[in-house]
User: What shape does this take?
Amino acid sequence: NGESGYIIPAVIPATDTAGQSTSVAYDTAAWNDGALLSGLGVGIFVYATTDCHANFGSAATITAATTAQIFIPGGVWLQLPYAAIKTVSAIKATAAGTIYVSEIVP
Assistant: This one.
């Protein structure tokens, strides 16, 4: 605003594609996909259209999700403190759906 004493945040572009988002459809069989996110995030936002179980990983490959993994309630946005996530796998709890994952970047 032209006045002194104000702090102006500096934005430094990332050298990768941090801040990516992805979606994965799931059903009775867990869905795997490799390197969907940059892995530069400090956390993730997660939304699932139906109740599901999900597995998040920092490697380019991931173990298939099972019902023993984290429960993600359908229709609720979650913020999870999982850093450096690159892959996601999900399996339905009751009905097929889609899970959406977005990186939180510093």
